[in-house]
Amino acid sequence: MLDFEALFERRAPVVLEIGFGNGETLVQQAAENPDLDYLGIEVHEPGLGHCLIAARDAGISNLRLIAADAVDVLLQQLPPASLRRINIYFPDPWPKKRHHKRRILQLPFLDLCADRLEASGSLHIATDWANYAEHIEEILAASDRFVCSSRREHDGDHPLDRPVTKFERRGLRKGHRIWDWRCDKAV
To answer: Is 69 a catalytic residue?
Structure first.
């Protein structure tokens, strides 16, 4: 299990971002919120490298990265009730019906996220795929571990407590709408 105090050399709330892509928005959030510690998980090695370079160039000290599968990290490295917030922005939508089972946002995954969030923790999700948005609505409705406190559908002009991402800009260029959720851990 990770010891966040040792990892960040201080005690601060920890925000986890799963699948941060090239890390542009992760670095931005870490720079804008020096009172929080940020942990990013990504499997795409070029994205990890880009994020590390951007963090170094910005002088960021409150950001750490893990190159691994998010489920494995959540299960094996993150202590229960250790995270303030989990961000999952524009996860792979696996648009073909036969691939829907590969989508990260499933009920067992929501349970795992809830277990790793502190009592007042929140899960933030964004997608630009209408079919994935419907799927997310269904699993959130089926989960008793989260309460949806905010939901927003927009054209890129009103992200919900997050910066605009590279994948969001790409989706908007394709004419997609954006869906954002903030889900608070149920007590």
So the answer is: no
CATH number at residue 140: 3.40.50.150
Catalytic residue among 72, 92, 144, 155: 92
Domain count, the chain: 1
pLDDT over 80 (residue 95): no
Burial 99-127 (b: 16+ CB within 10 A, else e): eeeebebeeebbebbbbbbeeebbbbbbb
The range of the structural domain enclosing residue 72 comes to 4-185
Q: For residue 120, what pLDDT is reported?
A: 94
Structure tokens at 16: 């986890």
pLDDT for 153-170, tens place per residue? 999 888 889 998 988 999
Amino acid at 156: G
